[in-house]
Design a protein that fits this description.
DNA polymerase, domain 1, single chain, 38% helix
Amino acid sequence: MEKKLLKICAKGHQFYKSSDCPVCPVCAAADKPKEGFLSHLSAPARRALENKGIDSLSALSGYTEKQILSLHGIGKSSIPLLKRLLEEKGLSFK
């Protein structure tokens, strides 16, 4: 079992993590959108899309499944959810 280290974010929140991931869970929860397709995703998946500039379903539809799956933070479980959200708007992956 990995030892969790106490970390403190720039806003002063204290949290424990066993990885090098610098993301503060308190800040991440506060940053989660209340609506829109990004609100349905886990924080890592949401950050992966946001870092790529994908902030709408129409922007997402410009990518293939393979391209999206290759992003760090997107797992295989994200693809069916993204497909469903796209289909609800009459869209699909490229």
